[in-house]
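Researcher: I'd like a candidate sequence for this fold, 408 residues long. If you have to choose between options at a position, lean toward the conservative one.
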């Protein structure tokens, strides 16, 4: 593979320093070079600098003309649900008429309607769905995605989801505890089955486990039992918590040393302070809050309290049919009052931290993965400023052009 030189870039932008996660003031610091280049050696960045400082390059070097473009790190989506069958457009229409997400869920719609469609899709159907969704993400600049199971809720379909995510290049998370399927009497009986018959194999396919800790889903005692069993099988821990109610997700996440607690639309000042003093990353999903007309999570307060904050799409058919991290960055700026710099760090280096990969993903710096997004904009902040705009011109993934202008 020849080296790839991305040259004459208007701006080259990367979260500052080499630390992860970035918190507090450090979250708002940026390295910005004008008239710059990024030199990729195969899948790894070899050098980043100003064109003036670019020496002669020997050997086989392909070039990508970056004039007029701004380079940011490949975006990292650390929370998605891409493996599902069917859609929820009917439910979307009902919600537009006033029905609530929780009511639809309690009536056997919501997540369980996607479970029915996902079981019917079959493994090939799920593979095609994840590939399609992964393609949508790439067009928005996402070069790394995490994907959760949780729409199978039976052994074969949960495992098929995890395989489909992994084989599409995603980082798989086992969300067996997403809802209780109708064939079980209650959540405890379902967990008995899940832990005995699904977890042992799921633990070979996934890197992390996740649980929906919420009224109408799993309570704190059930979540603890599930997460402890998953941790015992070597999985990192995540929680969907405080989406509608504060039901104990934050203290449990801290006690179990979870990687993250995600959502937090219902989190109050005590939860903010607890996360600020902890090593659990707060993953904020403002597209989901918007999509469900819910309050926004307390993003500014979390950053100011010193919490490690990441942003993600929560891409799924029910609560956030949105694969765009640029839209999420816009929402972070307008709704969470994070600066564009903070928003960028939250969906690059801090998201990589949630996935245990901040040593190699999320920065444009030597030694990091050669995942680079080129924006067709006069200033990199257009990625957040141009709400819903198509600013992503080219995506370089592991040193090769995956989308957009070819190298020559
Ligand atoms: O993160 N709230 C739980 N799970 C997903 C939504 C799943 C669905 O509605 O299909 C979420 O919002
Ligand atoms: Fe989610």
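Model: Candidate sequence:
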């Amino acid at each position: 593979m020849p080296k790839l030189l991305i040259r004459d870039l208007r701006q080259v932008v990367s979260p500052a320093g080499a630390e992860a996660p970035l918190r507090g003031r450090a979250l708002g610091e940026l390295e910005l070079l004008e008239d710059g280049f990024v030199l990729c050696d195969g899948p790894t960045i070899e050098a980043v600098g100003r064109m003036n400082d670019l020496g002669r390059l020997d050997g086989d070097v392909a070039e990508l003309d970056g004039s007029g473009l701004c380079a940011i790190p490949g975006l990292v989506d650390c929370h998605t649900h891409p493996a599902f069958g069917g859609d929820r457009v009917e439910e979307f229409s009902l919600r537009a008429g006033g029905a609530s997400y929780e009511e639809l869920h309690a009536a056997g719609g919501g997540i369980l309607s996607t479970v029915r469609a996902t079981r019917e899709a079959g493994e090939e159907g799920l593979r095609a769905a994840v590939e399609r969704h992964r393609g949508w993400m790439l067009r928005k600049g996402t070069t790394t995605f995490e994907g959760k199971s949780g729409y199978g809720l039976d052994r074969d379909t949960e495992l098929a989801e995890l395989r489909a995510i992994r084989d599409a290049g995603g980082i798989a998370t086992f969300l067996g505890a997403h809802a209780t399927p109708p064939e079980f009497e209650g959540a405890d009986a379902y967990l008995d089955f899940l832990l005995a018959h699904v977890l042992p194999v799921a633990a070979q396919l996934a890197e992390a486990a996740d649980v929906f800790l919420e009224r109408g889903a799993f309570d704190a005692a059930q979540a603890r039992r599930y997460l402890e069993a998953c941790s015992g099988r070597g999985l990192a821990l995540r929680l969907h918590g405080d989406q509608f109610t504060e039901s104990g997700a934050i203290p449990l996440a801290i006690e179990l040393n979870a990687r993250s607690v995600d959502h937090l639309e219902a989190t109050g000042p005590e939860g903010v302070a607890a996360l600020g003093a902890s090593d659990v990353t707060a993953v904020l999903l403002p597209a989901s809050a918007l999509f469900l007309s819910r309050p926004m999570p307390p993003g500014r307060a979390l950053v100011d309290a010193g919490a490690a904050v990441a942003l993600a799409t929560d891409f799924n058919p029910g609560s956030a049919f949105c694969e765009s991290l640029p839209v999420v960055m816009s929402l972070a700026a307008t709704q969470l009052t994070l600066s564009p710099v903070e928003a960028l760090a939250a969906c690059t280096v801090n998201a990589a931290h949630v996935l245990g990969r901040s040593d190699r993903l999320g920065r444009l710096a030597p030694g990091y993965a050669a995942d680079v997004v080129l924006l067709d904009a006069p200033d990199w902040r257009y990625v957040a400023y141009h709400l819903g705009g198509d600013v992503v011109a080219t995506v370089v993934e592991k040193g090769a052009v995956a989308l957009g202008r070819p190298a020559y």
